[in-house]
Input
Amino acid sequence: MPRMDERQPSPAIAQLQSRVERLLLRHNELLRTNALLAERVQSLEAERDQMRQRLHDATQRIDRLLARLDQTPSISGEPDPHA
Output
C-alpha cells in the first residue's frame, strides 16, 4: 500500500492547485501594477500642483501689469478707444 505522501494528487486537486498558482501569480502581477500606477498618480499630482502654482504666479504677474496699465495716464491725454 502506498504511503500518503507518495500518492499522486487526484486530477481535481492538481487542477485546483494549478488554478491557485495562476491566481497567486496574477495577484502578484496586480500588486506590482498597482504600485506602478500609484507612483504614476503621485508623479502626475506633483506635476499638476506645480502647473497650478505656475498658473497662479502668471495670473498674479498679469494682474500686477494690468494694475500698472490702469495707473498709467494716456500719452495723448485722450481716453484709449480699446479700453
